[in-house]
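Tutorial handout. Part one gives the primary structure; part two gives the three-dimensional structure as tokens.
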Amino acid sequence: MKKLLLLFRLCLYYIVGILLFTTLFTITELYILKDSGMNLKFFSSYITNFSNNLLIYTLLYFILIVSIRIYDILSVKKLNEKLQKMKKGVN
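Part two.
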């Protein structure tokens, strides 16, 4: 049950993140294009950018998840080693 809840949370974060990432990317693009004299609609640009940004965001998301997992594993290993040294020092 705990793993299912974690998986659900990761999927929810992914969906919310892709929507925010695409929205911010589209708004930034529209401001740049507006400064250069072009005028585009937000919704049509959003749909175009969504398909383009899906791969980029997916790669960034999984790199972030994997790096956090590796960091957690290494920090737990380091803390366990310190705990073992403390236990040896007490005995």
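Part three, for discussion. Residues 2-90 form one domain. The mean pLDDT is 84.
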